[in-house]
Design brief:
The complex is a heterotrimer of chains A (390), B (93) and C (341). Chain A is α/β, with parallel strands linked by helices and 390 residues long. Chain A has helices spanning 21-30, 64-79, 106-115, 121-127, 131-138, 155-168, 185-193, 226-231, 260-273, 291-305, 315-318, 325-339, and strands spanning 6-15, 91-96, 146-149, 174-181, 217-225, 238-247, 280-284, 311-312, 341-342, 364-365, 370-376, 381-389. In chain A, the strands form 2 sheets. Chain A has a 10-stranded mixed beta sheet with strand order 3-2-4-5-1-6-12-11-7-8, with helices on both faces. Chain A has a two-stranded antiparallel sheet with strand order 9-10. In chain A, helix 6 packs across helix 12. Chain B has 93 residues and is mostly helical. In chain B, helix 1 crosses helix 4 (80-92). Chain C is α/β, with parallel strands linked by helices. Chain C has a single domain (2-339), classed as Thiolase/Chalcone synthase (Peroxisomal Thiolase, Chain A, domain 1, 3-Layer(aba) Sandwich), CATH 3.40.47.10. Chain C contains 10 helices and 15 strands. Chain C has helices at 16-25, 55-71, 92-105, 112-117, 122-131, 146-159, 176-185, 257-262, 270-273, 279-293; strands spanning 2-10, 13-14, 81-86, 137-141, 165-172, 187-188, 204-205, 210-217, 227-230, 241-244, 266-267, 295-296, 315-316, 321-327, 333-339. In chain C, the strands form 4 sheets. A 6-stranded mixed beta sheet of chain C has the order 2-1-8-5-3-4, sandwiched between helices. In chain C, helix 2 packs across helix 5 (122-131). Classes of the chains: A alpha/beta (390), B mainly alpha (93), C alpha/beta (341). Strand 3 of chain A pairs antiparallel with strand 4 of chain C, so a sheet runs across the interface.
């Protein structure tokens, strides 16, 4: 059953491939991949990562994740032309993250181990770093609807889904939704130990893919009831039509081999949007470039959408940005719909016969109005969004 | 020489069994109950992909050994015996 | 939404029987500061897939499992069962163990098992695994407002028919490092006794840990306990009882005086469970039990300098409506209203 129209009235982003929409679209067109060694912290590991260059942490000492997220939120609010009007409406803030929700400061813990005591500076910083609360405070949003989603790799997508629920249930008129995460030693070491990180720049869905690269950034969409948007004399051109999520209940770190959890999430999202798979012009896949994710996801995309489906993984441009991924990929999906094209799926060279379908191998024009963005999380959560344009 | 090798292997297998039980939180089984030819994955001890990467860390910390390629790992991790032999062969080098 | 089943793991053990006994017994000096004992966290059936799980995941898994079983709902609904977990701090004990690995063994020598359990959503993953449940799952965090927000989302999912049944709950843990942090940031009660009616500007706390879960549904067939009839920030009607979450964790508790002063009867069960940012979940357990049993449980610690109208002893009362109230650090009033079905 189709849902009430929810407009996407603003987009904001920051990632290794650009600090604004224009830069990002150039990177997409030029197939520019800004991977390099870690510079944000000292490490003996030399896996390539996608850092946001020339971006300093906030001078007030808050976590880098907050700095990245505030930057993208600021851009999205400006894009939505809401800078002066935010509190004229019932606003919600729902954001996904992994790093900023963890008490994982190694300097603090190292000092505590050594001395049995430690300075509370990092703890104070952590207590101010609930991402949604921090954004509400920074942008002076007066709301009781602000919450942070910590669903690992699908956090950003799920935050957007929660925002959709708030709007549909009448709790808010506008929701600032998406996600942010900084490059951090804990997931960097952790994913490395799982053996899923590549020593070269990642190649999603490629036959010779060898794992993911981590990245950082923030992707924010402003969700707004269409009636509110029109009252503000705007003409919305992008919409959020559906959201689905389902659990694999299979394993803590590996996806269910038959992909039935992802399939369920996809059909729920399509059902909410009143669409069938053939209506979808393209899919922005989760596509981490790990052997298991791409195999499972690729086969599901083929099964659900058919072998001709156009799809790509933008993680080849941004790395896997964890809590930010769903937010960034929603922004990319919306942008690509608006622009009428999707970039070549970065890093892809040759078909994996086990997957059976290949992502787009060149910049591709898109005529359709509907697209899907998928996320598969550590722990077995699968999420999907349906986004459309006028 | 062969006797020494067998004694060493026996010690390695014994240490391995202790480590597997403690590090992988194996319940309902004591180290001495694990057979030498016990298959680690699937039907035997029932270990999974997360245990496999944990064993890599176990080998690093307790025997100073690296497993660089998980495809190679599949053969090494087949059973307690194959793992013990890998440790014996590579510790000597 | 109706509460069809409940489950709890806390310092004194596991299960609603243990909880009722604790409420009848009243105040007892907590074992090792409200820690959940290792013996509580063993169950070959409920934890059959949780061999490697850490304590937070085990507490949540047991409480959720018990809530599911308590509801009597058929196993066939598991594809239509959502899971929402609220946690203020997540698996910090495991995170610190992972940091130990980094410091002891370097970036290349860390345990992947510890890493996998250091993510906030590991607990929900285990709940889904243990129950074999394939519906929507989500973990959220908003410090003291976490459980309140989780209930709002549960209500939304049911209204949207995202699923027909939801296990919604809270879980938090304490640990050596967290206790140190609490000792530096807050005032810890030297006598181990939370005094929730002191309502002082600098209240005392004693950190706790545990998990509380509810199986909720709009399906009127499952009316076992009470309905959650309001998640407002302003109370509308006069409840028979106001339960205060004044556990010393969120600053100046003089804020509670206005509501507590005009309430018909007041209680608080923080001294049963310990101080938690997600204490609201546990207060709701007691509220739901009270409504089902049609009786009020005496507050375990009755130090009452403001002469509030406390429940006096455990007595049978007509109990139609109970409000659970918490203020967070931003002075937001978080109210959960439970009513008889």
């Amino acid at each position: 059953m189709p849902v009430a129209n929810i407009a996407i009235s603003g987009l904001g982003l920051i990632s290794a491939c650009g600090k604004n929409i224009a830069e990002t679209l150039c990177a997409f067109t030029d197939e520019k991949r800004n991977a390099g060694k870690v510079s944000l912290f000292k490490t003996e590991l030399d896996y390539p990562v996608f850092e946001v260059k020339d971006f300093s942490s906030l001078s007030c000492g808050l976590m880098r994740t907050l700095g990245l997220t505030f930057y993208a939120v600021r851009a999205a609010i400006k894009d939505a032309d809401l800078e002066n009007d935010l509190n004229d409406f019932r606003i919600g803030v729902c954001l996904g993250t992994t790093v900023s929700s963890q008490l994982n400061d190694t300097d603090f813990y190292s000092e505590y181990r050594r001395k049995g005591s430690a300075s509370m500076n990092s703890v104070d910083r952590f207590l101010k770093s609930n991402l949604a609360q921090a954004v509400a405070e920074e942008f002076k949003v007066r709301t009781n609807f602000c919450t942070t989603i910590v669903n690992a790799c699908s956090s950003g997508t799920d935050a957007i889904g929660v925002g959709l629920s708030w709007l549909r249930n009448g709790y808010c008129d506008i929701v600032i939704a998406g996600g942010g995460d900084e490059l951090n030693r804990v997931p960097f070491d952790g994913f490395g130990s799982l053996g899923v990180v590549s020593k070269s720049v990642c190649a999603p869905f490629d036959r010779n893919r060898s794992g993911l690269n981590l990245g950082e950034g923030a992707g924010i969409i402003i969700l707004e009831k269409e009636e509110i948007n029109r009252k503000r004399n705007k003409k919305p051109d992008l919409f959020l039509n559906g959201y689905g999520l389902a659990s694999d209940a299979y394993h803590l770190t590996a996806p269910r081999p038959d992909g039935s959890g992802l399939e369920k999430a996809l059909f729920f999202a399509l059902g909410e949007a009143g669409l069938s798979p053939k209506d979808i012009a393209f899919v922005n896949a989760h596509g981490t470039a790990t052997h298991d994710n791409d195999l499972v996801e690729g086969k599901v995309l083929s099964r659900v959408f058919g072998k001709e489906i156009k799809f790509l993984s933008t993680k080849g441009f941004t790395g896997h940005t964890l809590g930010a991924a769903g937010g960034l990929e929603a922004v990319f999906t919306a942008l690509n719909l608006r622009q009428g094209w999707i970039p070549k799926s970065p890093g892809f060279l040759s078909l994996d016969e086990d997957i059976g379908i290949a992502p787009v191998a060149e910049k591709t024009l898109i005529k359709g109005k509907f697209a899907v963005s998928t996320s598969l999380a550590f722990g077995g959560n699968n999420s999907a969004l349906v986004i459309s344009r006028n | 020489m062969a006797v020494n090798k067998e004694e060493e292997l026996k010690l390695i297998r014994s240490k391995l069994k202790e480590l597997l039980v403690s590090h992988l939180s194996l319940e309902d089984i004591k180290p001495q109950e694990i057979k030498d030819d016990e298959i680690l994955f699937g039907e035997g001890l029932g270990l999974d992909s997360l245990d496999a990467v944990e064993i890599v860390v176990l080998l690093q910390r307790n025997f100073g050994l690296e497993v660089k390629d998980m495809n190679q790992g599949r053969k090494i991790f087949y059973s307690v015996d194959t793992l013990a032999n890998y440790i014996y062969d590579n510790q000597k080098k | 939404m109706h509460i069809a089943g409940m489950g709890v793991v806390f310092n004194r053990g596991r299960g609603l029987d243990v909880l009722e006994k604790a409420l009848e017994d009243g105040w007892v000096m907590p074992d090792s500061g409200y820690r959940v004992l290792p013996t509580t966290l063993t169950d070959k059936v409920a934890l059959k897939e949780a061999r490697r799980a850490d304590n937070l995941s085990k507490m949540a898994s047991l409480a959720a499992y018990d809530a599911f079983i308590d509801s009597g709902i058929s196993n066939s609904v598991k594809d239509n069962l959502g899971i929402i977990l609220a946690t203020a701090f997540g698996p910090h004990v495991t995170t610190f163990r992972f940091l130990d690995d980094i410091l002891n063994f370097g970036d290349a020598g860390v345990s992947p098992t510890l890493f996998s359990h250091s993510v906030h959503n590991a607990a929900v993953s285990y709940i889904a695994l243990n129950l074999g449940s394939r519906g929507p799952t989500l973990t959220m965090t908003e410090f003291a407002a976490s459980f309140h927000q989780a209930l709002i989302l549960a209500e939304s999912w049911l209204t949207e028919k995202r699923c027909e049944y939801i296990l919604v709950g809270c879980a938090d843990q304490t640990g050596e490092v967290m206790q140190y942090i609490v000792s530096q940031k807050l005032k810890v009660a030297a006598d181990g006794k939370i005094k929730p009616f002191n309502l002082a500007s600098d209240p005392e706390c004693v950190p706790g840990e545990g998990s509380a879960f509810f199986l909720v549904t709009n399906n009127k067939q499952y009316h076992k306990y009470a309905k959650i009839s309001g998640l407002d920030v302003v109370s509308k009607e006069d409840p028979e009882l106001l339960i205060l979450d004044s556990d010393g964790m969120t600053g100046d508790e003089r804020r509670y005086l206005k509501q507590a002063g005009k309430a018909r009867l007041v209680s608080s069960y923080a001294p049963i469970f310990g101080s938690f940012l997600t204490l609201s979940g546990f207060s709701c357990l007691v509220a739901a039990l009270s409504i089902k049993r049609q009786k009020l449980f005496a507050p375990p610690v009755c130090v009452n300098p403001h002469n509030l109208n406390l429940c006096k002893g455990t007595e049978s009362e007509k109990v139609n409506r109970i409000n659970c109230l918490r203020y967070d650090c931003n002075n937001r009033e978080l109210l959960i209203r439970l009513e008889v079905n």
